[in-house]
Amino acid sequence: MITQDFEINFNELKIYSLTFQDIKLLKRNNNKKYKELEVQIKELGKESAKWQNLNYPITTLDIIENHPDQILYFICGRNDIIIGYIKIGRKKLYLYDKNSTCHELIPLSVLDFLITTKYQRKGIGHFLFEFMLKKENVIANNIAYDRPSNRLTSFLKNYYHFTKDIPQYNNFMIFETFAF
Ligand SMILES: CC(C)(COP(=O)(O)OP(=O)(O)OC[C@H]1O[C@@H](n2cnc3c(N)ncnc32)[C@H](O)[C@@H]1OP(=O)(O)O)[C@@H](O)C(=O)NCCC(=O)NCCS
């Protein structure tokens, strides 16, 4: 793939968060803004599904509105155009530790993560991820990653010293250093 060479001004990037309550309020108080947001997130959701070989998007405003446990952090470039997002949530999971002991936990999970193609590999994913870590007061090691792509695994190796996971019986990936 040919990547376009252009500089990112990180001071221009803005990150917003959305919960089911924010969506309900936006729908009620500013339906025009809601519709604009809905269209942009829908397009990105489709792109993310394509990257991950999913048959349908797992991120739309409707989905978030119906999942009180989910939070969408989205990042905008110039003119408030959304260039990516990370969706997180808390799910009850059965996770195995290194000794094959099963734990029932509700860890913070990364459920979907996308930076639109043109803006990939410019540090924006890292910028957004770091913002999310701070807001959620969590470290990368203690997150569960839903069906991580090779690109996300490489991202975690690059920035968060990920080396090895603990094999699980579900689609989630956790670091070997996950704190049970
Ligand atoms: C994964 C993703 C969110 C990372 O965002 P990003 O802005 O590209 O990441 P950054 O620029 O901050 O970091 C770049 C690092 O991420 C990893 N990475 C990103 N894209 C990659 C790719 N196509 N192949 C391999 N590694 C990749 C690499 O470690 C890369 O470092 P490098 O360029 O020095 O090799 C983004 O690439 C993306 O949206 N990919 C497609 C969707 C996807 O796979 N999402 C994960 C869902 S599980």
From TrEMBL:
Coiled coil: 27-54
Keyword Acyltransferase annotated: yes
Key word 4Fe-4S present: no
Segments forming domain N-acetyltransferase: 4-179
GO cellular component: a single term: microtubule
Domain of life: Eukaryota
Record keywords, A-Z: Acyltransferase, Coiled coil, Transferase
InterPro entries assigned: Acyl_CoA_acyltransferase (IPR016181), Atat (IPR038746), GNAT_ATAT (IPR007965)
Annotated GO MF terms: tubulin N-acetyltransferase activity
Transmembrane segments: none
Pfam families: Acetyltransf_16
Name of this protein: DUF738-domain-containing protein
Organism of origin: Anaeromyces robustus
